[in-house]
Automatic annotation (TrEMBL), chain A:
The keyword Transmembrane helix applies. This is ABC transporter permease subunit. It is found in: Cell membrane; Membrane. It is a multi-pass membrane protein. Coiled coil: none annotated. Keywords: Membrane, Transmembrane, Transmembrane helix, Transport. Residues 15-196 form the ABC transmembrane type-1 domain. Pfam families: BPD_transp_1. It comes from Amnibacterium soli. The chain crosses the membrane at residues 12-37, 49-71, 77-96, 136-160, 180-204.
UniProtKB/TrEMBL annotation, chain B:
It comes from Amnibacterium soli. Residues 288-302 have a biased composition (Polar residues). This is ATP-binding cassette domain-containing protein. Belongs to the ABC transporter superfamily. Pfam families: ABC_tran.
């Protein structure tokens, strides 16, 4: 415990560095996977090609990827971007499949009916398909988030500082406590990411809290003159 | 004017023909029902009107204007569309669902919502449901919202694709009566698709009986079709051949009521006959004499 208290500054700095690597990879991976997943769900050919590429990407060992990315991208070996790119590729590998499933989960009835009401294809994507794919997209990004936070630790092996440094340090110094501290920190960080993501999901998808509303919520719904426009669309 | 189909054909790339050669005129401000078994092309025909499906050959005119020259999105916004299972957007509240098309065409949101509340009244829904999500409504309520949404842009044409097919019989009766009332009030050019001949006869001013491939077996008013079925197919389809429509007075019911049975002895309805004497009934009492020809109506009257 004394060690933890005396090293709080260092642990905090590593945590911040960790977030700096993981968060962009998760967000960019999500942003790239949504259009890719949409095409994968709309065309059988695109679907099988994209999902196969995703599977192959995911089988590449983490260490191999962080070593190969700087060579392929022509970046300096100690550039943190290398780790972000590697994590981004892993995020896509998982998320494209989730996104494809998410768009596949939108009922054909609703899509047809939206077209029949006169939504243009672009409006239909933004106002109907994307929000309705939301719950499955959210489930996907939560998996990606947890896995990315844990994978980020590999960066420590190629000299990019993050919470993984606590593992390499512990190994070199034969000091297991430090590894345990690292493990707990990674778990806590993953939990924080998950809570934040599900809170955002609940805020953006108020219709998704179960089909039957419990008494208290129902009373509140009826009391509302108009619903605050939380979806913003 | 109304809607005209001129030699419309629809062949899919795989070679199947959904519609062979279909021509008809649908008069304005009345209800035309396409009725037929599944696979007769009735839904395909309906969807050609708002260009959800484009015909391979032939023309469809709305008030003389060829729909193939109208941009599909713009065309669909001026035609109301109600489908089975409502097709409501599950992530929008009832009031926002009803306001969908006006908002798409640029009407300010608050104005569109206010108008939507008025439409809820019109279709017989309580305003307290306005802020619910579709998943929190019953099937019948969802269909009413679907009808309100179809009417929101005040279209001249309303397309209805088996809108009451998935609700239970009692609710269906209610919705049918409600639609008849609405139609009397607003008089839209309505094209209604169903496989239920009772529903077709109840709602249709003009009924189009379809065979496989969109072939017209008979067009006419319910009374014409029932009195003079064009062929055995029609007679069979409307139930005349099986004796379902041939009713005879069987026995005295309560008061002046006389029980009517079809030719297989199935009790089909009641008719009020003073003193139990059918020969005293005024001929043609009621526009379609529905009370003795149509089972559906009795539940509606009850």
């Amino acid at each position: 415990m004394d060690w933890v208290l005396s090293h709080l500054d260092e642990i905090w700095a590593l945590t911040v560095a960790h977030v700096g690597l993981a968060a962009p990879a998760i967000l960019l991976g999500f942003a790239a996977s949504v259009p890719l997943g949409y095409f994968a769900s709309r065309s059988r050919v695109a679907g099988s090609v994209l999902l196969t590429i995703g599977n192959i990407l995911y089988t590449i060992p983490g260490i191999a990827l962080v070593v190969l990315v700087p060579v392929a991208a022509g970046l300096a070996i100690l550039n943190p971007l290398n780790v972000v790119i590697a994590l981004f590729l892993y995020a896509i590998a998982i998320m494209v499949r989730s996104a494809s499933d998410a768009f596949g989960s939108v009922s054909a009835d609703v899509r047809q009916s939206a077209a029949a009401q006169g939504f243009s294809p672009v409006q239909r994507f933004w106002r109907v398909e994307l929000p309705l794919a939301g719950p499955v997209l959210l489930a996907g990004i939560r998996v990606v988030s947890v896995s990315t936070v844990s994978l980020t630790t590999v960066g420590a092996l190629v000299g990019i500082p993050n919470l993984g440094n606590l593992f390499t340090d512990a190994f070199q110094r034969q000091f297991p406590l430090e590894a345990v501290v690292g493990l707990v920190a990674v778990l806590l960080l993953a939990a924080v990411f998950d809570v934040v993501l599900s809170a955002i999901g609940r805020l953006l998808m108020p219709w998704n809290r179960g089909t039957s509303v419990r008494g208290r919520d129902r009373a509140r719904l009826e009391a509302l003159p108009t619903r605050p426009n939380v979806t913003g669309v | 004017m109304g809607i005209e189909f001129h030699h419309v054909r629809k062949t899919y790339p795989d070679g199947t023909t959904a519609v062979e050669d279909f021509s008809i005129t649908i008069p304005s401000h009345s209800t035309t029902v396409f009725v037929g078994s599944s696979g007769c092309g009735k839904t395909t025909l309906l969807r050609m009107i708002n260009r959800m499906v484009d015909p391979t050959d032939g023309q469809i005119l709305i008030d003389g204007e060829d729909v193939s020259g109208i941009e599909p999105v713009a065309l669909r916004r001026r035609i109301g569309y109600v489908m089975q299972n409502s097709g409501l957007l599950p992530h929008r509240t009832v009031v926002d669902n009803v306001a969908t098309v006006p908002v798409l065409t640029g009407v300010p949101k608050t104005k569109a919502r206010t108008a939507a509340l008025g439409l809820l009244d019109r279709v017989g829904l309580d305003r307290s449901l306005a802020n619910r999500y579709p998943g929190q409504l019953s099937g019948g309520q969802q269909q009413r919202v679907g009808v309100a949404r179809g009417l929101a842009a005040d279209p001249n044409i309303l397309l209805m694709d088996e809108p009451f097919g998935a609700v239970d019989p009692i609710v269906r009766d209610e919705l049918q009566q409600e639609l008849l009332r609405l139609q009397r009030e607003i008089g839209k050019t309505t094209v209604f698709v169903t496989h239920d001949i009772d529903e077709a006869f109840l709602l249709g001013t003009q009924v189009v009986i379809l065979k496989r491939g969109g072939l017209i077996a008979q067009v006419g008013s319910p009374a014409e079709i029932l009195a003079h079925p064009a062929d055995d197919f029609v007679a069979d389809f409307v139930g005349a051949k099986r004796g379902k429509r041939r009713l005879t007075a069987e026995q005295q019911g309560q008061g002046d009521d006389v029980l009517l049975v079809d030719s297989s002895g199935y009790p089909a309805g009641l008719v009020a006959a003073p003193g139990g004497r059918l020969d005293l009934l005024p001929a043609g009492s009621g526009p379609k004499s529905r009370s003795i020809s149509n089972k559906t109506d009795q539940a509606g009257d009850a």
